[in-house]
Amino acid sequence: METLIDQRDAVNQWLARYGVRFGVYKGGVFHEQLFPFDPVPRVIPAAEWRFLEKGLTQRARALNEFLLDIYSAKRIVRDGVIAEEFIYAAKGYLPQCENIIPTGKVYNHISGIDLVQANDGAWVVLEDNLRIPSGASYPIIARTVTRKVSPATFEHHEIADNRNYPALLQLMLDHFNVGNGLTVIFTPGRYNSAFFEHSFLAEKTGATLAFAGDLVVEDDTVFYKGLFNERQRVGAIYRRVADEFLDPLAFDRHSLLGVPNLMRAYAKGNVAVINAPGNGIADDKGIGYFVPKMIEYYLAEKPLLPNAPTYLPFYPDDRKYVLANLAKLVVKDVAEAGGYGVLFGRDLDATQLDDLARLIAAEPRRWIAQEVIEFRDLEVLTSDGDGRGKRKADLRAFVLYGDEVKVWKSGLTRYAFHPHSYVVNSSQGGGFKDTWVEKEE
Amino acid sequence: MAEPISLPKAERLFWLGRYTQRVYAVLHFFRKFRDVIIDVDAGAYCNFCDLLGIENRYASSRDFFTRFLFDRDDGSSLISALISAHDNALVLREEIKSETLAFIQMAIAHVDGLPPTADVVRWQIVGDYMLAFLGAVEERIRKPRVRDLIEIGWHLESFDLHLRLNYAYDRLLDLRGRLERRLLREPELFDQQKFVALKEEMALPLFDKSRALTLAGQLFRVDNG
């Protein structure tokens, strides 16, 4: 491990060589910046991973059942497990997706599930990302570089190779491909914050990177437009364009990023869209509360991975508790993402707490509140003191749902920029680590 | 069935070839003019601008040395050509591969680390990276059409620049021959009549340079129309 740490500069030079960046908008202007990498990995023992794998698989299966149900029979609402206010008022619920059953009845082909490990070692789910979860490319490239720079480190540690993610992804995309057509990764373009990942995954999976204007729908079939009016049928679209911009005829009519009539082709089963449109209903922060109930309802199993203790001010009892304990809770705006709209009660003064309480009382469905989890610090290298420090970190695990459900033996470990901060998002200045999963004995 | 290439992608590949060659070749020409300016003609940079067809917006040779290299607001500067190469390469990663793109990334990173008054000698490695890029195109890219499009751009730019700078006729014929060999690999991507006209023009005892440049600029043809 020390060898790898000694090679920190060499690692960073290689990352710069590969252009490992992410985009951010500051003051409306697009900037690209390197994603800081810390060479001290998060290490997950094999037995612990086995448990996580089961819990994550269970969660992804239940969420898929929920999506299938919510866009068709809605049994879970009829049976009173989830109040309908949490479905139809959610921004992520798309009526345009009603009764569209995707190939293989799979919606969340790729789930990015964010977890933290509490001080007692227990893993707790913070949220599910089922629309266009990003971040898998960074650990792959970090492993590629660290193995190159410090091969000795990997000779002395039995670590599962995580560079198989593109192969797993490709296998899943091929599984759903309709009519043996072209597989494309559909990107909103260079100025998207995750463009590096779109182009990197296209390179590594052999998919074609498609931009707005490269795709056209004719006779309810999607084609990639080549030179001299050549057309090639598209069988699978791994889209990195958000639902609302995907098809201007179905969603935001002002969208210049989408493909007109794509939803018609998708509804007719002529193309696979990965992840399925409409998944936003299942990763709504308010819906996250119900996932353990979904597991019991759809799978008749006990949930293996708990949620962070969550309260929904929508329910009077929860609201009473939240308003009485605001100073010790973390409150999240369900409409926000990327670390925005997250308020720690302990960081607010009395006036700010009163203001927040009024907002919650006025719009209870807009907020969730969670107990603050004292999650385990991970060691990072720093440029001050003795060069070592501690930071809060989470883990985004990736679950791929193809002909079977597979959990990628790695994940994106993100750590906070500031020593006592709980906000780990890259857009908030944090960095990332490799995630080592130890091989089975 | 071979995977098709979209029109925007074809154009980006072509311009990637042109801009990388422009960085490589103009750096070379710049050093030659820099040498002339030392002890022969302090105003030689004006001639340099004239020949390349770029606006002479420089107050002095000193101003030219700096701004022609580093001024990002000057579309004719070397850094602008390098950024344009990078802009095209960045959206072609899956075609040209990360290892090929890396040479342009490293060139950009090197220039970003230079003081804005650094002498052209500090740009030497940028030229080396451009040549390494071309080597990586040949070595790493598996799709023939992707390679061809970049190489057509590279050799067309080389021919164009040498023609502008009045290189010897034999040299121009050699560069045109290199271009022709790439064009013949992709006959549907260029205007063959224009190429015949270019050859006829250059066969004249006193050929018209500006007509030859115009014809060269019309050779590449990928529009769907």
Structural account:
The complex is a heterodimer of chains A (441) and B (225). Chain A is of the alpha+beta class. Chain A has 2 domains: 2-302 and 375-437, no CATH class; 310-371, Dna Ligase, domain 1. Chain A has 15 helices and 20 strands. Chain A has helices spanning 2-6, 8-17, 46-70, 75-78, 85-88, 137-149, 151-155, 165-176, 195-205, 243-246, 262-267, 285-288, 291-299, 316-324, 350-362; strands spanning 21-26, 29-34, 37-44, 110-117, 123-129, 182-186, 208-210, 215-218, 221-225, 231-239, 272-274, 310-311, 329-333, 342-344, 367-371, 377-381, 388-401, 405-407, 412-415, 431-437. The radius of gyration of chain A is 22 Å and the shape is globular. The mean pLDDT of chain A is 92. Chain B has 225 residues and is mainly alpha-helical. In chain B, helix 10 packs antiparallel against helix 11. The chains are: A alpha+beta (441), B mainly alpha (225). The interface between A and B is medium-sized, with 27 and 25 residues.
